Amino acid sequence: MIIDRAISDRLAHFKDKLLFISGPRQAGKTFIIEHQLKPALELNMDVAKDRLAFRQFPDFIVNWYRTTRGAFPRAASTRRKPLVFIDEIHKVQGWRNLIKGTYDKTKQAVNYVASGSSAFAMRRQDQGDSLAGRAVWLTLFPVTFREYVKTMAPEIVLEQPWKAQTPLTDLVRKYLPHQKRLRALWENYAAYGSFPENLVRKDPVFYRQWLEDYVAAMLDRDLKDLHLAKDVERVYHVFQLLLAGLGSTYSLRNLAETLQVSPNTVKSDIRALKQVLWGFELPVAGLSKSRQIRKEKKFYPVDFCFSRLKEPLSDGAPFECTVACLLARGLASETSEVLGRLQLGFYRDYDRREVDFVVRDKRGIRLAVECKLKVKNSSGALDYLARFRPTERILAVEEPNIFGTDRGIFSISIELLAVNLE
Predict the structure, then answer these.
(1) Is the pLDDT confidence value at 24 over 60?
(2) Which terminal residue of the chain has fewer beta carbons within 10 Å of its beta carbon, N or C?
């Protein structure tokens, strides 16, 4: 089974640009490039002879072209350009200058695509020549529920994903006839996480081993690639402590005391975790200057499957983590911009009122989401938030077959929410 990825529809638009695809390990970057773009030449920077070839760019490319296709054109021609794929490009020091110079000298004859793990995305601003005007940067996250539905249930016509242009609840209503089918798909998706291999295999024994192996790979490869001097064991302990506190704000001081290091060290470790895309932070969404706590943050892993690595503080924390991952990915094209139109955060004030997620723009709150396992467990925080006049207030619940409204708050089963997020 091949899962239909949304990024596939975007690749053809950038064929004459330097195309860079980054994202978490095993999200499917190499698979998409090899099976959709079908490169004529592949170089893997984990392989010594391929690294040597890359260091000989652009001469290597010109010689390869002459050997396989004939005379190298000096100007643009009507011939179809071959594609060169460079995997794990971030592992070669000075890669920016090499690829820029090569592109400038060979773009009339050759197209290029490069991929790298999450560490690669953080090296966009490394020292080297600017790639402005030449490069397009795309991020591939693990499989979204929407992509999974598109693959497994093509009979369900998917509306455009929610980006706050239309009410989310209006979109949800259109999927009510398919709620039973969506729930069955959601149970598979929630059971195995969103990494492609696990969704395809559906093997619980393999899945448990995969979780351990994946973390080891992140420790041994991604973290060391970006932070050679980091104590990877300490960073992993920070990661475990953050997972144990899922759903709660974290304290640098408390983490530092537990690990017997300085708060600045822990702060640096969390920054490293974000840089290699082990996880992401959500800030407090600033709504009330007088009553609201403003400096606290929450940490969530890159995928909700990692919430199973450590027993969280509360039973509902893994579900909250699931919704956090859905929203973060669904708004990624918005929140990743320098001046993002939509901002994702949470609400918390000194009276301990808290709403799990708030999506807002410069005009106000577009969406407020509280997460509960069942409708009957709902709190009054969404009622309190009504004073800020959010466009929509939603209680996202884990239990199935829920869609209804009370006091202006919509209760919605998670599968109906997830299918509307990109």
Answers:
(1) yes
(2) N
The DSSP 8-state label assigned to residue 223 in this structure reads I
SS3 assignment, position 113: strand
Q: Does residue 232 surpass a pLDDT of 60?
A: yes
Indicate the Cα dihedral angle 248, 252, 258, 261, nearest 10°.
160
| CA gap 369, 357 in Å, rounded | 5
Mean pLDDT within 51-75: 94
Q: Cα–Cα distance between 305 and 325 in angstroms, integer?
A: 10
Query: Model pTM?
Result: 0.89
* 20 phi/psi in degrees, rounded to 5: -115, 125
Spell out the residues 6+ positions from residue 56 whose beta carbon is closer than 8 angstroms to its own: none
Confirm if 96 and 126 have CB atoms less than 8 A apart: yes
Determine contact, residues 370/379, Cβ cutoff 8 Å: yes
Q: Which long-range contacts (CB under 8 A, 24 or more apart) does 260-266 make?
A: 261/234, 265/234, 266/238
Let me know: does 251 contact 259? Beta carbons within 8 Å.
no
Alpha-carbon gap, residue 277 to 297, rounded angstroms: 17
Q: How far, in Å, CA of 371 to CA of 109, rounded?
A: 53
- Is the pLDDT confidence value at 377 over 50? yes
Report the C-alpha gap between 329 and 327 in whole angstroms.
Answer: 5
116: pLDDT confidence band, cut at 50, 70 and 90? confident
134-170 residues labelled b (16+ CB within 10 A) or e (exposed): bbbebbbbbbbbbbbbbbbeeebebeebbbbeeebbe
pLDDT digits (tens, 9 = 90+) for 128-144: 556 777 888 888 889 99
Identify the sign of the CA torsion 89, 95, 98, 104.
Answer: positive
- Look at residue 121 in the predicted model and tell me its pLDDT: 56
Radius of gyration in angstroms for the set of CA atoms belonging to the chain, rounded to a whole number: 23
Report residue 275's pLDDT band, with 50, 70 and 90 as the boundaries. Answer: confident
The single-letter DSSP state of residue 14 is: G
The single-letter code of the amino acid at 239 is: F
Q: From residue 68, give the alpha-carbon distance in Å to each of 40, 64, 390.
A: 10, 6, 60
